[in-house]
Amino acid sequence: MEDAEVLELVMNDLKGMFGTSIPEPVAMKKTSWHTNPYSLGSYPHLKPGADLSVCDTIAAPLADKVFFAGDATSRKYMATAHGAYLSGIAAAESIMKSV
After folding, report:
1. How many domains does the chain have?
2. Residues 23, 59 within the same domain
3. Which of 18-27, 31-40, 58-67, 78-87 has the lowest mean pLDDT?
4. φ, ψ for residue 13, nearest 5 deg
5. CA atoms of 1 and 64, how far apart (whole Å)
6. Which among 84, 52, 82 has a CA at the least distance from the CA of 69?
7. Per residue in 26-64, pLDDT tens?
8. Domain span holding position 77
């Protein structure tokens, strides 16, 4: 969808929830990871019967200097937004412990 279409869709939903008097946004950020040449819109996927320890391998920091987060690093909530969010919190906590 074009930016204007996304903005209209979101604002229609927000107005339905909060009423029509809500202000228009000052700016909008929209990801386009599906066109990113490094991800091409990929999702994490494990073959049936795969060991979830692969998530721990992906999440493992490098020399306590490079930390990883994202839905592929979450054993419990793989391929979900909240899995990505929670893994970001865990990575931030690891960073704080390493400084």
Report:
1. 2
2. no
3. 31-40
4. -65, -45
5. 39
6. 84
7. 998 887 877 888 877 777 888 888 899 999 999 999 998
8. 53-98
Question: How far apart are alpha carbons 30 and 6 in whole angstroms?
Answer: 8
Amino acid, res. 85: Y
CB 22 within 8 A of CB 15: yes
DSSP state of 40: T
32's tokens: 């386009």
47, part of any domain: no
Distance (Å, rounded) from C-alpha 90 to C-alpha 67?
A: 10
Residue 19 lies in a domain: yes
Tell me whether residue 16 is in a domain: yes
Q: Any residues with CB less than 8 A from the CB of 22 and at least 6 apart, and which?
A: 11, 14, 15
